[in-house]
Amino acid sequence: MIITATVMKYIPTNAYFYVDDGTKHAFLIDPGAQPEVLMKIVQERELIVEKILLTHGHFDHIGAVSTLQKELSVPVCMGMRGREYIENPEWNLSAQTDEPIVLKNVAFLPARTTLSLSSNPEYTLQVINSPGHTTDGVIYYDSRDKVAFVGDTIFAGNYGRTDLYGGDESTLLNTIHNVVFKLPAETVLLSGHSEPTTVSAEKKMALYV
User: How far apart are CA 148 and CA 92, in angstroms?
Assistant: First the structure.
C-alpha cells in the first residue's frame, strides 16, 4: 500500500508511506513539512515507520525530518552526495526562508543499496543514483511492485529544475534517458510535485528529446 500525503509550508510536496499491509511497517519518503499531519497518519493507520528516506536534500523534501526523527526514533537515509545539502542551508534552499535547516544523524547510502523492511524482507527498495536536479538525487525503486519514488527527477509531463545548486540539465536528461527510461515500461513514477505517471507515458513525450 502507498499512502500519499501532500504537505506544505512553502511549496506543496508529496510525501509517501510505502506500507506492508500485513504488518503495517513502512518507509516514509520525503517528509517535507507538516510533521503533525504525517504523525496523524502514522497514529490513525497504526503504522510502524522503520526508516525515513530522502530523494534529495531540498528544503521542501526535508523540512519535517528533524521533528520526525525525535517523534519516531528511526534512521534517516539519503544518497551519498547528500551531506553538502543537509548541512548547508544555502544548498538546501532553506536560507531563503525564515527557518534555515541543518540535519544531523543521516546515513548516506551508496548506489545499488537495497533497503528491506525488517517485518517483511519482500518489501525492498533499491537506491538508484539520479543526479541532475541536484547532485545528490536518488530514486527508490521496487522491482516487485514496479514503483519508483523519483523525487524531482521527473514529473508527469515535466522534469525538475536545473538552475539551483548542483543542478545540470544535460545531466538530468541523461538520468531520465539512461536511468528512468530503462525501468520497465509499466513502472509507476511517484514524484515530489505531480500526479503519478508511468515510464511508458513519459517516453512518448517529445519534452525529453
Answer: 23
Q: Which residues partner with 116 through β-bridges?
A: 124
Nearest Cα residue to 99 out of 76, 66, 143: 66
Q: What is the pLDDT of residues 72-105, one digit of tens each?
A: 999 999 999 999 999 999 999 999 998 999 999 9
Would you say 69 and 52 are in contact if contact means Cβ atoms under 8 Å apart? yes
3-state helix, strand, coil in the chain (%, to 5): 25, 30, 45
Grid cell listed for 46: 497504526
Q: Whole-angstrom Cα distance, residue 159 to residue 183?
A: 17
Domain count, the chain: 1
Q: Which domain holds residue 163?
A: 2-208
**35-45 vs 65-72: helix crossing angle, rounded to 10:** 30
Largest CA distance in the chain: 45
Report the CATH number that the domain containing residue 112 is assigned in CATH: 3.60.15.10
pTM of structure: 0.96
Bridge partners (DSSP) listed for residue 109? 79
Report the run of H or E that residue 171 belongs to, with start and end.
helix 169-178
Half-sphere exposure of residue 20, counting CA atoms within 13 Å on the CB side?
19
Taking CA 8 as the corner, what is the angle to CA 7 and CA 9, rounded to the nearest 5 degrees? 145
Q: pLDDT tens, 57-68? A: 999 999 999 999
